[in-house]
Specification:
The chain is mainly α. It is built from 21 helices and 5 strands. The protein is 62% helix and 3% strand. It has a 3-stranded antiparallel β-sheet with strand order 1-2-3. Strands 4-5 form a two-stranded antiparallel sheet.
């Protein structure tokens, strides 16, 4: 894969999340008609072909509000599709279809990338890609013949290196009432510059280079025969622990992804200490944590206990898998890919909701969409949609309890997949429907 040329990077540097927020604010009238876009918008269908035609006349800037609105609305829709792919990947993991897990997880990553980029003013299409600048005009990403897959990764890598990405991540990830940026600045000292998005993603296991490598995984599992039919798979006990971790990390009852964000902040603070302060033998990590908690006036001892590892000392299995970079031929590598897909979707969710907030768009504004989706995909009874998407959590909680109870009641010799599916079919269906996380993430 060829790197982006300087001319393309210059255009990408002009991408504007504020312009996307402005476009979203114009969609309210369409929402009242139960539409994401004006019904006459030409980009509702065959958008990639129309963008290609637009770009034939030059590199811009062009004025085309309908395309800008299409890119803005697509950020939410691509995000949902990413979570839907991940849902199908988890279902494949439960069935033991490890090749399908890798394939679907890759496409979850791809949709997450496109959603994130759209929220930041980058429209990824087929052979031609565009940027929305501060003035709401469109410019072609020049000097690039990259297709959809290549541009998604290249533009995402470029975004990760921008200072704005670090600021957005620092704002969007929160623990114990404070943003990641608050914790890092206070922990390191007010004079320390904020770390960039690329550094954060590398530290958390989101390393964008891994996703480029996962494209090779996609090629391996999508187009080539798999002769290693004895690849080790997680047993029911292990996989349900991973699934339980995923849902607990996504629990929306207080704040969506609250527990996941706490682990991410803890990881960031530990790495910060090891990088900047470990050589100072006179100051301990715990002392810096305590000092940061006092400075932020955190009311309870929970952050100190958690960040110092006296509470929940071990990272969840999902984060353990996400941090590994095994070969595509290694056993359980499929669990690494699906874990990274989840984390990238979390990052994309944080980015997509920012322009929605700036545009003052709430879940009620596009309830026509998520209620219809829930009806048609069986997330709730057609005649009884929830008033609030967060209510979907309670079904998950009941199913996780049922799965845990079943495991505790069985002897190890009957914990096989046949028994698992036979006794827990309904609960497995609930526990693999990650579209819930997409809906309450943006709502």
């Amino acid at each position: 894969m060829e790197p982006l040329k300087p001319a393309a990077e210059e255009v990408l540097n002009r991408a504007s999340a504020s312009a996307i927020a402005n476009a979203l604010s114009r969609l309210g009238g369409y929402f009242q008609q139960k539409e994401w876009l004006d019904p006459s918008n030409p980009y509702r269908r065959n958008a990639a072909d129309r963008v290609n035609e637009l770009c034939k006349s030059g590199n811009g800037p062009f004025t085309d509000d309908q395309l800008v609105e299409c890119i803005a609305a697509s950020s939410v829709l691509h995000l949902f599709e990413g979570w839907s792919y991940l849902s199908q990947a988890v279902g494949a993991a439960v069935r033991g279809d490890v090749g399908i897990v890798r394939h679907l997880s890759y496409y979850a990553e791809l949709r997450a990338s496109i959603a994130l980029l759209a929220s930041q003013g980058v429209g990824v299409f087929k052979k031609k890609h565009v940027v929305v600048n501060d003035g709401g005009q469109l410019e072609t990403v020049v000097s690039s013949n990259a297709g959809t897959h290549e541009m998604a990764w290249l533009a995402l890598q470029h975004w990760g290196r921008k200072q704005e990405s670090g600021q957005l991540i620092c704002k969007g990830i929160r623990a114990f009432g404070y943003s990641l940026g608050d914790w890092v600045d206070t922990f390191q000292g007010a004079t320390t510059n904020r770390i960039t998005g690329a550094e954060w993603t590398a530290q958390w296991g989101f390393d964008l280079k891994q996703f480029v490598e996962d494209q090779e995984t996609r090629n391996e599992v999508s187009y080539r025969a798999n002769f290693n039919f004895e690849t080790r798979r997680l047993a029911p006990v292990e996989l349900t622990e991973w699934i339980s971790d995923l849902w607990q990390l996504s629990n929306p009852l207080a704040t969506s992804f609250e527990l996941l964000d706490q682990y991410l902040v803890r990881s960031a603070l530990k790495r910060s200490f090891n990088t900047k302060f470990q050589a100072d033998a006179e100051e301990s990590y715990e002392a810096r944590i305590s000092s940061a908690c006092r400075a932020l006036k955190v009311a309870t001892s929970n952050p100190t206990e958690f960040f110092c590892g006296r509470v929940k000392p071990n990272d969840p299995l999902l984060l353990v898998f996400a941090s590994k970079t095994s070969s595509v031929y290694d056993d359980l590598q499929y669990m690494e890919v699906i874990s990274r897909a989840y984390l990238l979707l979390r990052l994309a969710t944080a980015c997509v909701i920012e322009p929605l907030k700036k545009a003052n768009i709430s879940k009620d504004d596009f309830s026509f969409w998520w209620q219809h989706i829930g009806n048609e995909t069986g997330l709730w009874p057609r005649n009884n949609p929830p008033d609030d998407p967060i209510d979907l959590w309670y079904d998950v909680e009941v199913s996780l309890e049922a799965i845990a109870s079943w495991k505790n009641e069985q002897s190890s010799d009957v914990l096989c997949w046949k028994s698992f599916h036979q006794h827990l079919a309904a609960d497995i269906d609930v526990a693999t429907r990650l579209e819930r996380a997409a809906i309450w993430g943006v709502a």
